[in-house]
From TrEMBL:
UniProt-listed Pfam families: GH94_b-supersand, Glyco_hydro_94
Protein name, as recorded: Glycosyl transferase
Domain Glycosyl hydrolase 94 catalytic: start-end pairs: 307-734
Ranges for domain Glycosyl hydrolase 94 supersandwich: 11-293
Single GO molecular function: transferase activity
SUPFAM superfamilies assigned: Galactose mutarotase-like, Six-hairpin glycosidases
Lineage of source species: Bacteria, Bacillati, Bacillota, Clostridia, Lachnospirales
SMART domains (alphabetical): CBM_X (SM01068)
Keywords, comma-separated and alphabetical: Glycosyltransferase, Transferase
Superkingdom of this protein's organism: Bacteria
């Protein structure tokens, strides 16, 4: 069943009931100020770093679910209700939530009163606007009271929910006119504060949560709202909030708008020391002054719409398949931008506390958004590279505020170095900007150790060359892409040492997956060397890649599919010889994607094994058979119940690898079949099973071994978004950026029909018509650019050229 519908014209998903299977959320903000907001107005706000600069509180996994939020209470006689339904959960005469691109709108109706509130973060200011419209739809005057509500977080979200002996004594606020200022910790060595104001006189306020709610009450029936009058409480310690009371009377048909602004501001530290407990409100007042009228808010909203219109115009498809068009043109690219902003740090599944920006994650996310904002991709690459160690390894995560590596997580994920090559190569292919390779970048953020980015890539490459195991395959370290495959999690069999199994340096578990990565991104590194004139390094790199390629064929092939790894004892992982976990998805997807085994016929055989052994109606599971007991030698992967997460769940992130590999061998029907199974627009019809948002990808879907087969978890912040966009845009629809120009090589279902593409690439806009008169799955027989026949399938790049008219015929 469905709980809403896609409105493609307005680029919205419209939710028609508040009782969705899980909270269905949206992200507001594009640069430094962000909010997460659910379909019932739940969520939270932060500035730059969800851990260190959290403005509002949220209670994860609390009961009832999805508290706190940004709430508006309406007291109309004895009836108390919210436009977004929560937290009072009063039955509404009408409810609708529209999640759009950078905004969400909530409309509720009760007793002839309509309330509609639009939430968005303007492009240039560190604030969230809440534009509330109230209308009397009845034939009699309507008198009622409105109460706003947010609960402040005491900045450090981790400390906020643990250090009560201190935090219950530090809350401080100021109230001036219609603005409530949250200045907790300002008297310390801080220069920031938050504020919540409205563009109208207020009839009361509260800043103490205890006073607002009353003893032993929750957000669902606050005492102040029930009484119909604020207490004008001034918080001192305990839990500070911000509530405005506005009493209104509307004539029949009359409308009233109010603008609430939730914002973040800073004062210069030098200014602060002269009066350490008094904030200079000027920065806040400057923001508030910009949003006092409907016209000002409308202008900011129009600018936001224009921003997204421009971004999404960079890749656009028009086909006979509306679901493909919907995902490619709107939701997939939108999600790619959100993952760029958030990495894996802040969602309804990631608290914003335990994880920062991921080294691997952010590099992969870059693959999906580099065409949208290449200049910010450039910044991100340099930030990531600065967390690399001098030996080529890297911190697995870093904090977005400090850009320092996360020492709590540390390093040792041996696939990380290669993702830096992947991201950098994608950026240069997109932009042609080789100057990034000359940028001086520190190692471990130590400026005394700075070296050109190209040197960082060199060390990434050599880290793999210098860390191989007994078979000549790359060492896995703590793990590779599959964080839960921990093959070195104990020393050895009783009485034996690591020296029995390999180099004296220690753990010797090997990864076939990293080997496949090394082939793909090692070749990319070699090409960058060649294009920058370092032919000797290019030749050396190509020879190292060839060695690994041969080792994969020799020791990474299991007879019908690729092995996954070798554990610390040299035992095969992902082999028919194993009792459980005989075949894994990762190497079957990434080896053909990297070109391994294609000419030898092994790629086709491996992909056939995927369909036979791993395929299900909801997607391809990660492995089979599922592990039914804990295997110490394999680690965390076997700690999950069968069918969940890495233990035979449908990990949506690597389904696109298999789909891309199918395009490599020319099977468009199969590639598209795989694409459809995890694509949100195609799973909307069974939302009651899938449960997560039907407009964005989730990380994981429960596999066929699970109790709840088809149920998804961990939506929004997943590499699935970027890899799926790479799959559909570059491999199925077939527009792949190369160093020489834009490659056109679609691999589509035989009945997909003709289609048109618009692609902005470097300075040019490419208008591409693809015709498939013989209904083939792959094969360009004719490529015409501006009326001229072109040999091959790469449109030559012409510096400065603005428009390209391209005709492609398949056959």
């Amino acid at each position: 069943m469905k709980f809403g519908y896609f409105d493609d014209q307005h680029k919205e998903y419209v939710i028609t009931t508040p009782k969705t299977p899980l909270p269905w959320i949206n992200y507001l903000g594009n640069r430094e100020f962000f909010s997460l907001i659910s379909n019932t107005c739940g969520g939270y706000t932060f500035y730059r770093d969800a851990r260190l600069l959290r403005l509002t509180r949220y209670r994860y996994n609390d009961v009832p679910c999805d508290t706190n939020g940004k709430y508006f209470y309406i007291k109309d006689g004895d009836c108390i209700w919210n436009p977004g339904w929560q937290p009072t959960k009063t039955d509404l005469d009408f409810y609708e939530c529209c999640h759009g691109l950078g905004y969400s709108r909530f409309t509720g109706k009760k007793k002839n009163l309509q309330a509609s509130v639009l939430f968005f973060v303007p492009l240039e200011d560190n604030c969230e606007l809440q534009w509330l419209h109230l209308k009397n739809d009845g034939d009699a005057p309507k008198t009622f009271s409105l109460f706003s509500y947010v609960e402040w977080c005491l900045w450090n979200a981790d400390d906020d929910m643990k250090n009560f002996q201190r935090n219950l004594s530090i809350g401080e606020v100021e109230i001036e006119d219609s603005v409530i200022y949250h200045k907790t910790e300002y008297r310390e060595r801080r220069d920031h504060f938050a504020f919540y104001g409205v563009n109208a006189p207020i009839d009361g306020f509260d800043t103490s949560r205890d006073a607002f709610l009353g003893a032993y009450r929750g957000n669902d029936h606050p005492q102040v709202v029930e009484k119909g009058a604020c207490s004008n409480s001034v918080a001192s310690g305990w839990s500070p909030i911000a509530c405005h009371q506005i009493d209104l009377t509307l004539a029949p048909g009359q409308e009233k708008s109010l603008i609430f602004v939730l914002g973040y501001a800073e004062n210069p530290l030098a200014e602060k020391w002269s009066a350490p407990d008094i904030i200079n409100k000027k920065p806040a007042k400057e923001i508030l002054a910009k949003y006092q009228t409907d016209a000002q808010v409308e202008q900011a909203l129009s600018a936001l719409a224009a921003y997204w219109e421009d971004l999404l115009s960079k890749y656009h498809v028009t086909s006979s398949n509306e679901k493909v068009d919907r995902m490619v043109n709107i939701w997939n690219q939108y999600q790619c931008m959100v993952t760029f902003n958030m990495s894996r740090s802040a969602s309804y599944y990631e608290s914003g506390i335990g994880r920062g920006m991921g080294f691997r994650d952010s590099c992969q996310d870059l693959l999906g958004f580099v065409h949208l904002i290449p200049e910010r991709a450039r910044e991100r690459i340099l930030d990531i590279a600065a967390t690399q160690f001098i030996d080529g390894s890297a911190y697995h995560q870093y904090q977005p505020l400090t850009k320092k590596g996360n020492s709590d997580i540390g390093s040792g994920f041996n696939d990380d170095p290669l993702w830096l090559i992947a991201g950098t190569d994608a950026y240069i292919r997109e932009t042609g900007d080789f100057s990034i390779l000359d940028e001086a970048v520190p190692f471990d953020n130590d400026v005394s150790l700075a070296a050109p980015l190209m040197e960082h890539l060199h060390r990434s490459f050599d880290y793999i060359v210098n860390h191989k195991g007994p078979h000549g395959l790359p060492l896995i370290g703590r793990a590779d892409w599959n964080d839960c495959l921990n093959l070195n999690c104990f020393s050895a069999h009783p009485g034996e040492s690591f020296q029995t199994f390999g180099p004296s340096e220690g753990p010797v578990a090997e990864s076939v997956f990293i080997a496949a990565m090394f082939v793909k991104y090692g070749n990319a590194y070699a090409k960058l060397c060649r294009l920058t004139g370092n032919t000797s390094e290019a030749t050396r790199a190509e020879k190292e890649v060839a060695k690994i390629y041969d080792v994969i064929l020799k020791d990474g092939w299991d007879g019908k599919w690729f092995l996954r790894a070798y554990d610390a004892h040299g035992q095969k992982v992902g082999s028919h010889e194993c009792e459980e976990g005989q075949i894994y998805i990762e190497t079957q997807g990434f080896c053909p994607l990297a070109g391994v085994g294609v000419k030898e016929g092994l790629a086709k055989e491996a992909l056939d094994s995927v369909k036979e052994r791993l395929d299900t109606k909801y997607g391809i599971v990660l492995l089979q058979p599922a592990y039914t007991r804990y295997h110490l030698e394999l680690g965390e992967i076997t700690s999950y119940p069968p069918g969940y997460k890495e233990n035979a769940g449908i990990f949506c992130h690597n389904n696109p690898w298999v789909s891309i590999s199918e395009t490599v061998i020319g099977r468009g029907d199969r590639a598209f079949e795989i694409y459809q199974k995890t694509c949100p627009a195609y799973v909307e019809e069974f939302s009651e099973i899938h449960r997560t948002e039907p407009y964005v990808y989730s990380q994981m879907i429960a596999g066929r071994d699970a109790a709840f087969f088809g149920e998804a978890k961990n939506s929004w912040l997943t590499g699935t978004a970027a890899w799926t966009f790479v799959n559909i845009s570059q491999h199925i629809l077939g527009l792949l950026p190369t160093h020489e120009g834009l490659s056109v090589d679609p691999c589509i279902p035989h009945d997909f029909g003709d289609f048109e593409l618009t692609r902005k690439f470097r300075e040019g806009t490419y208008h591409i018509q693809v015709r498939n008169p013989k209904q083939v799955e792959k094969g360009v027989v004719s490529l015409r650019v501006d009326g001229q026949e072109i040999a091959g399938n790469v449109i030559p790049y012409v510096r400065g050229k603005k428009e390209y008219q391209v005709e492609v015929t398949l056959g």
